[in-house]
Amino acid sequence: MGANCCNPASSRATTRLSKRYRKILWAALVVNLGMFGVEIIAGIRADSVSLLADSLDFLGDAANYGISLAVLGMSLTLRARASLFKALCMLVFGVGVLIAAIWHLLSGQVPDAPTMGLVGSLALLANVGVAALLYAYREGDSNMRSVWLCSRNDALGNIAVLLAALGVFGTGSAWPDLLVASLMAGLAVTASYQVMRHARQELAEEAEAKAVT
């Protein structure tokens, strides 16, 4: 066995790390639920697909953090399976946003740029704070990686929403909003693929290890 397995100090450090990570996940869960409520109301009132997409992303991330809290400390196999489920949720989110963008394109609605800018700025601050807390865990297992990728994508998405608000304000058309919403959908699909591939690799390695023993 490795030295760390018999090292009490290492065990205590791992326990402290786990407790700190759990607290961060709880904080992220509360922040994301709160921002979901803010953005979905603002998105509906402003007729903004990118805000609606971001609100659903906040809801998906809240579920992501909740699942991560539930499986924290469980076996790698269970955590990897949870990651596969979260990857599927990210994929569904991406497809849903694309459908919403097409619907708004056909309806010809122009979103309210000031609302997009104000709410997008608030969302950016929230997501940058969460991403900063999770940065140290970005290279963990597939479950930790999925949490980090969601937070990173959220911050990038918020910046894109702000750019969309500027575009809508400057052009008076819905195209910047629809374009950003589509880009956010693409980020979700890409992250889904990355997490799914990582989780499948972990499951394969666990199956191989069990077969050897």
From TrEMBL:
Gene3D superfamilies: Cation efflux protein transmembrane domain. One of its GO terms (cellular component) is plasma membrane. It is found in: Membrane. GO terms for molecular function: zinc ion transmembrane transporter activity. Keywords: Ion transport, Membrane, Transmembrane, Transmembrane helix, Transport, Zinc, Zinc transport. It comes from Pseudomonas borbori. The chain crosses the membrane at residues 24-42, 62-80, 87-106, 118-135, 155-172. SUPFAM superfamilies: Cation efflux protein transmembrane domain-like. Signal peptide: none annotated. It comes from the Bacteria. PANTHER family: CATION EFFLUX PROTEIN/ ZINC TRANSPORTER, RE54080P-RELATED. The lineage of its organism: Bacteria, Pseudomonadati, Pseudomonadota, Gammaproteobacteria, Pseudomonadales. Residues 25-203 form the Cation efflux protein transmembrane domain. This is Cation diffusion facilitator family transporter. InterPro entries: Cation_efflux_TM, Cation_efflux_TMD_sf, CDF/SLC30A. It is a multi-pass membrane protein. It holds the Pfam family Cation_efflux.
